[in-house]
Each structure stands twice: as C-alpha cells, then as structure tokens.
Amino acid sequence: MSSSHPNHAVVRRANAVAAARARARRMHREATHDAATGLPNHDEFMSRLERALAAAGRTGAGTALLCVGLDGAGEDGALRAFATRLRASVRRTDVTGVLGDGVFGVLLTHLADPVAVVPALAAKVLAADARASVGIAFAEGVNGGDALLARAQTAMHAARRQGANTAVFFDGGAAPVPDEPGPAGAPLPPDETARVEALRATQLLDSEPDELFDRIVRIVCTSLNVPISLVSLVDSDRQWFKARCGMEAGETARNVSFCAWAVLDDEPLVVGDALLDPRFADNPLVSGAPFMRFYAGVPLRSGGRRIGSLCAIDHMPRTLTPQDLLVLKQLARMVEDLIELRSAALGAVQSLNDWGGRPLLDGGTGARLRQQFLRDPLTGLPNRLVVEDAIARHAVRGPAGACAVLAVVDVDNLAAVNEAGSHADGDAVLVAMARRLRHQAGPGDVAARIGGSTFLVWLQSDADDCAARAEALHRALNGPVQVAGRVIHGSVTMGHSRFGPDGLDAETLLVRAQAALRHAKSQGHGLARAFEPAHRRTEPRVLEHDLRGALARDELALAYQPKVDLRSGRVVGVEALLRWQHPVFGMVPPCDFIPVAEESGLIIPIGQWVLDQACAQLRAWHDAGHAGLSVAVNLSARQFLDDEVAARVVRTLERHGVPRGALELELTESTSMHDVGRSITIMKELKDAGVVLSIDDFGTGYSSLAYLKRLPIDKVKIDRAFVSDLEQSAESRAIVRAIVRAIVTAVRCLGLDVIAEGIEQPGQARLLMADGCFEMQGFHFGRPVAAAECPLDAHFTVDVPPEEGA
Fold first, then answer.
1. Are 747 and 726 a contacting pair, CB within 8 Å?
2. What is the pTM of this model?
3. For the chain, what is the mean pLDDT?
4. Cis before 290? omega within 30
C-alpha cells in the first residue's frame, strides 16, 4: 500500500548529510578564525596575505599592511568591540585578522595611490580606539608575507614608543628581506664533541625545573627590564631551556638558536637589532613568535666548555649599558656556580652510596646528608630523587598486600598569581601547599617539589585505602591561601597512578600519573583523576616532544595496503601508510599524531622519510618482478603547499630510479581547494615529473565537479563513508548508490579513473562493480601490513549478480 508520507530513512540520511556538512563548515571556521573576535586567525590571515601579494605581483596593484596593537586591552569583550569597529573602519575589499594577543592586521589591497590612501585609512583605524598603535608597511620590494609582517610590526613597536594613538611608517632601510628560506644556523665550535659531553655530564638536560635557576631568569627580566630571559643549554641538535621567564616553548631547534652563536666565544653576544644582523634577519624566531629583536647572551661554562648561555631578549631593538652587561655577567656566574654545586651534590651522593659497596644513605647521618643535598630551597621539601628511592624501596621491601599510589599535584594558574601580585605571592602559595602536604603525609609517605608549580606525593598504606587517601589529600589542598593579609582563592589539580596495576617502577608510575593529571586538566581546574588506560593517549605537546625523536629512534614504519583492479583480479598498487610504535603508549593512531606533525612542522621531514621509504620499497618490488606496481603516498596540506614540494619529489624519484607513473600522490579535497590557483601550479609541476595525482576522500568536502575539472589530476577516490552505507537498509542503499553512480559517471566523463576505499564486505564490492567502479581498496582485500607480508601475487574475484533494480 502506497503512502504519501516521506520515507523516514531518506529524511534521516539527508539530515545526517546536512549535519555533517554543517559540522565540517563549523570545524573549518573554528580552525581558521579567532574565537574571541570572529576574525581570521594568524595562519588564515597570513595565507590571505600571501595570496594578495601574489595577485599584486601579477597586476601591479598597490598593497599595504597595517599592524594595529592595542595598548592594554586584553579582555574578550574589548577585543570583540574593537574588531567590530575595525571592520567598520576599512573597506569591504580589505582583510582584517588577529596576529596575536591584542594585535590585529589590516591588509589594504587594490590601492591606486598607496602613499595618499593609506594615511587616511590609518587615521580611521586610530579613530576606532584611542589606545592603539599602528605600524604601516608597503608591499613594494618585499619578498613574501613574513617579511612584510616583520616590517609592519617594527613600525608598530616604534609607534608604541612614541605614545598611544600614533601611526608610524616603516623605514625601508631597517629590515633587510631574507633571500633564503630559513637560517642555516651557527657553525659548530671546534670542540663540539667534548662540549656536548661536558653538557651531558651535568645531567641538566630534560631535568625537572629548579627554583634557584628560575629565580635568576626572573631577576634578569626585572633588572634589565626585558620580557624574556632564558638559561639555554645548547645540545647537539636543539637548545633546551633549564629555566625560562616569558617564553612558552621549552626548547627550539639548534639552527634557529641565538645561543648556538653565543657558545662560539667567551665574550657575551649582543645583538642590538636582529633584523639588521644577516645572521638572524631571516630567523623564524625574529619574523614570528616570540618576535626577537634584541638579544644579549653570556656563555655558561662547565667542565671547561661552553655549554649554553644566560640570555636577555626583547621584542624591540635596544642597547645594553656597561652596567647592564655587568649584571648579566654576574648572574651568569651564579648560574655556573649552581651547575657546579648541583653536579658536586649528585656526585657526592653517588660516591657515598658506592662507598664500601653498599648504600650508606638509607638512614641515620647519611640520610640527613642526602636531604641537605637534595632539598628544594623554597619549600624545604625533597626533590624527585627522594621519591624515586622510596618507590624503589617499596618495590623491594614493601609488605604483602600493601597499597601505594604516586600522585602528581599541580597548582592551577600560579602564573596569574604572580602577575596579579608578585613572584613573592606565588612563592608564598607554594610554601603554603608544601606545609599542607607535610601536615597530611603519613609516616610512610613522601612529598616532594619537582619544579615550578608541581609536587609529587608518594602515599602508602597497609590497608587498601590509598586511592581514598589521595582524594582526601586533594580536598585538603584545594582551599584558599592567605598571603600578606589577603586571601588568594586557587585550586590544585591531581593525577595519580597505583603501584602494581599501573606500574612497578618510578618512571612508569610517574608517566601514568602525569597522563592522569593531563586528563584532569583537560576537563577543568581543581579536579583529581586516577590513571586509566585511555589516558595513555597523551596530549599533543607531549606527542610533539616524543615525535621529534621518533625517526632517530626507529619508531616509525610503513604499512602497505593493496589496491585491486577487479577487471583483472590483480593487485595493481599499494598505499603506504605511516605507523608510530610509541615506546610507552604503544601504537599511536595516525589521527592522533599526524595533526601534531602538521602543526609543529615535523610533517616536512617525516613526509620526506615516508616518500623515501615508499620509493625505495617500490624500486625493490620492481626489481623483484612486480614491474607494473604503483605506490600511493598521502600528501598533507602543509607538505603540498610547501614551496619545495615538487623539487623534493623529483629528487626522490631520481634517487630511487622510480619510473614515470609509478608514484601516486593522494591529496584531500580541502587541501587541493585551499588555494586553487596555487594548487594547480604545484600539481602541474608534479605532473611534469611523471607523478600520478589523486583526490582522496572525494564527496565529503566542498569542491564541485566544476572545480574538479580545473585540477590536473588523474584519479578520484570515493570516500569510505559512501561505501559503508551500501550495506545499510534498502532505502539508504538506493540513495547512496545513486550518489556513487553520479560520482563515477561524472568522474569518468572528465577522463579520470575512480577508486573506492573502505571495502570490507564482498557485497560492497559487487555493488560498486555494478555501478562501474572496478579499482578498490579495503580490509576485504587486505589490511595494512609490512612490505614482506603484502599479498602482491594474490588474485581476487567477485561475482556480479544481475542488476538489483535499486
């Protein structure tokens, strides 16, 4: 019996598709726009800036950049209000965006007479807020958006020095434009091997924060009136910060390190204006965050070698008086004394433990001596080594049935306390927390400060109540603190792991307690969480740290999944898929670490490694008799839009002797449609090199067949979402098959090949074959496996039934 009511399955499917597209659009906007103001964020603004400069280069139209800094307006409401006024002040063809905290960019395009028009527009911008400083830079003679932004920022800083509500034009001679894509880095010292050995002998690298070192960099910032100070240790391939004030990152690559130049000589390195120094003018730490313009570094020595520097950094050019330099040198000597004292203490402890072949520092006088060596000077609590010893003793001599937990406690927003009052207030909060820890600790418990705002607590009991004790401790710590007659309302967040179920050694327990702490932090402040296996999926900043060494530690590998052409039943190609076997977290899914690699820039070296490995394996397969085989490699957005991508691919193909048409590069819809003009140029370069290009996950993005026709591609891969729906109800299958048929027909009309991914059932393959799609990939034909296990000689057949009439 027929009905006029709509098919509910069809309606649900249509609603689901509409909701998915809406979510995708929302996610895209969240990724490209600032949440507080609704304006394009830094990355999106710079992307638009690069496109505008490229267009201006072709048309000769005038282009200028205004860098607008608010003086003291940092609340979201104030930023939103200023953003609204800013948009109303400029033309609709201009682009506004957020460059940083309280800093906006305004890109002025299509200017017939920039010198006449820009001052008027700048005046309108200043009229929008009486506490703004505007820097103006013209695009003429500038090679790239980063260089133009650096000039505009320089002018903005100059405007700030002149007072509020001021606009300053960039002086064309003040900022040389870099000719190279990036800094080469400092040359290696003649004693590099011995220098690195001396550094590592200090045991400072990757050690916990230390209050004494932290105090010295705070003194540098206060005494020299600079926003940033660091105790930087120059390792073989990075600089790592033992202490930092005003700097978010904990380390940087060595090739961008100013301190790597400081260790070349015993005399201090002073850079009055980095943009005027050819060694640093193109440094990304100068042109981008933290926008270093001034640097003064005094080398630090240990073991007779220069291992790093104590440095002062400013965002604007300046000079250093002889008195300032003397202060920096004296503080550097204090850092050296601390390093020597720390090394001597650790050496003394080791010698006393080794004396007579037995540990003398387990009790009595030895224990008191060790406490003096290893005590935190601010709180009086011991440090991490004492907790590790307690865990080791429990592992050897702990009573049967006893329970124990290791808790990591972090004081939330301690930086806000320091900023609202002073560092003395923050110190008072830490002392109060240490006092509470002592009060709550039982006879067998150990509390320690492991640096910064973080404490470590080892709780043990003969009864099975340690988890409850940890929760009680957290409640006791989560209370207001009285400082200098006033009450500071704060909170602490805790994560803890259990001895036994979660680990049997200090390192494992600490890693898992920190994972629980991060999970608690992700849900808010003032919470406590026990470790669960799901917490092993760590946050991006920790993954980034581990990912930096994954290649060197041989943790990355490729798996290969076969692609089958069911007209012949043969394997015609494979897709190379990246895998990461983390030493602690196990197999990390690509969806977790690929975005981290993209954001950090690690995707460039990792992507090159993938390309090298895949091409080398393809060459080996060709030599073994699989001459017609191709290999597909996914190319991320950052790799594809890198200026050197085509050159890198060509060099790799030549190095491994890969024939034309044997390498396929897969791009997503969003990547190829991000900047169509630039994408087409890059694609043509790759096509000229004999590379096959395909669009991955087709049907889920925003591109249309009209755009698809413009792209010089060879193949389209239908997204697995359509394939999985082929096994749904008859109504859903009819809709999906209509979509798939439309895609296949349209793609073939454009002269392109089509492949479907995500085939898990024979029925899916049969339906796709009936709809004209013959090349497929999925678990039905083979899972991603190591190269030696890939079923290249397999033969596949699928019976195609009569047309179902769907």
1. no
2. 0.41
3. 78
4. yes
